[in-house]
Fold this sequence. Notes:
Blueprint lengths: L2 H24 L7 H27 L5 H26 L10 H20 L1
Helix pairs in contact: 1-2, 2-3, 3-4
Amino acid sequence: MTPQIVLITGALFGLFAVVLGAFGAHALKKIATEEQIKSFETGVKYQMYHALVLLFAGSYFETPGLVLYYAFTVGTFLFSFSIYGLVLSSATGKKMKFLGPVTPLGGLLLIVGWISLLLEFL
Length: 122
């Protein structure tokens, strides 16, 4: 994986974390419960954490590993975006329950990404 792709992905995740965080802080408060807002914020935090990890990996490694890149990218997407979908669909009364099992799958991929990062250092 080229560092440029990793950096672009990290920058896009960071950008959308800020946009979605602002949405959650303002627009979501009108339709969601406090618990739903906290869940949404968890998705935003994890998205930003992993945006920063991708920016680091793209800057630090000459050729970031494929497992590292895909585990963090797909894991972040599945974890955070499933939370966004669950919160938004629940807040509008049309909960997409099929997203429930997606969140832990994303979390598992994030763990794989962190293990891959550790192995890159070793």
